[in-house]
């Protein structure tokens, strides 16, 4: 069912690379501030973010490859793969061990710290909006879906004439319920991961440096979860857009040819563009995480290159 291996795929990839590069540049500037406070570049946080992003990207690539090979056609499980990968990514970002000096001991910190203490408000807002949009999409599409004759609400049907019908595949309850269930699990896992990041004991005497590391890990969790949601939203919208093109007609009646179509046919082109943009934004979050830390190392290597001093 994963429908994004189409001519619009370059649009999504282009958006992902462009917006992801901009986000990576902004991350590099923030990481420079982190290094200034911490006294030395933090290596483990960007590395964990890259691992999480790679896992989420792998979920999208596997689903796209299955679609290309026509594996899992008319099945719900390929649609859930990006969110399932996002769940694994959140666990990886929040639970992989952090590199610490062997002689360090936890530092007492009496502040109240919750799941959202070290998160960015904008990233939390984007994740919340993506969750709400996915929920609305599932409910709205499910309400419009119809039974395919085998107990699966995976089609949309339009009446044709007095007793005829026409139908095509649609993002109905058959696809929506597993997606929504997986999204709920993703939300629980992400919040649990954020809570763990916030509550583990401090291992840095410098509270500012410790907080910045926690913020980096929280960003990795939120971006992985949000990217999985955005990619899934794009998949759902693409299928709805395709279904909107359903047309049929009855020729040679006493009033001429009568054409029939879906009630949301006009929204099809808009949903098609929006689907690729949604996937592109999800990929942009992953690209930014994959590039995080690399710009910093490159800049540092250039700055300390002895050949530059002789020029």
- Sheet with most strands: 2 strands, antiparallel
- C-alpha termini separation: 57 Å
The radius of gyration computed from the alpha-carbon positions, rounded to a whole number of angstroms, is 24 Å
Task: Give the tally of β-strands.
Answer: 4
Task: Report the average pLDDT across residues.
Answer: 81
Spatial order of strands in the largest sheet: 1-2
Task: Give the helix tally.
Answer: 9
Quaternary: single chain
Strand-pairing-aware structural class: mainly alpha
Model regions low in confidence, pLDDT < 50 over at least 5 residues: 1-6, 298-311
What letter string, H or E per element, gives the SSE order? HHHHEEHHEEHHH
Give the percentage of residues in beta strands: 5-15%
Proportion of helical residues: 55-70%
* Dominant shape: elongated
What does it look like?
With 311 residues, the protein is mainly α. Helices cover 65% and strands 8% of the residues. It has helices at 9-38, 44-68, 77-95, 121-144, 173-199, 207-243, 268-291, 294-303, 306-310, and strands at 155-160, 164-169, 247-253, 256-261. The strands form 2 sheets. Strands 1-2 form a two-stranded antiparallel sheet.
């Amino acid at each position: 069912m994963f429908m994004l291996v189409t001519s619009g795929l370059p649009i999504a990839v282009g958006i992902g690379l462009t917006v992801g590069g901009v986000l990576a540049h902004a991350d590099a500037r923030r990481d420079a501030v982190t290094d200034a406070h911490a006294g030395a570049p933090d290596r483990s946080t960007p590395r964990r973010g890259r691992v999480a992003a790679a896992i989420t990207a792998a979920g999208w690539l596997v689903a796209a490859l299955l679609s290309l090979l026509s594996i899992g056609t008319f099945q719900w499980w390929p649609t859930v793969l990006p969110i399932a990968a996002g769940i694994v990514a959140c666990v990886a970002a929040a639970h992989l061990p952090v590199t610490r000096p062997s002689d360090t001991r936890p530092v007492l910190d009496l502040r109240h710290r919750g799941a959202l203490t070290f998160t960015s408000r904008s990233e939390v807002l984007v994740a919340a909006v993506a969750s709400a949009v996915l929920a609305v999409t599932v409910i709205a599409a499910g309400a419009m879906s119809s039974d395919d004759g085998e107990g699966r609400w995976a089609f949309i049907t339009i009446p044709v004439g007095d007793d005829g019908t026409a139908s095509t595949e649609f993002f109905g309850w058959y696809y929506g319920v597993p997606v929504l269930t997986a999204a709920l699990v993703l939300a629980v896992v992400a919040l649990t991961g954020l809570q763990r990041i916030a509550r583990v004991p401090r291992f840095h005497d410098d509270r500012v440096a410790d907080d910045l590391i926690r913020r980096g890990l929280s960003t990795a969790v939120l971006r992985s979860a949000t990217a999985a949601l955005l990619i899934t939203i794009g998949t759902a919208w693409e299928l709805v857009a395709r279904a909107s093109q359903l047309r049929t007609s009855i020729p040679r009646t006493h009033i001429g040819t009568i054409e029939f179509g879906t009630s949301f046919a006009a929204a099809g082109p808009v949903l098609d563009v929006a689907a690729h943009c949604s996937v592109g934004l999800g990929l942009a979050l992953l690209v930014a995480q994959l590039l995080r830390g690399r710009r910093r190392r490159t800049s540092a290597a250039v700055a300390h290159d002895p050949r530059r001093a002789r020029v």
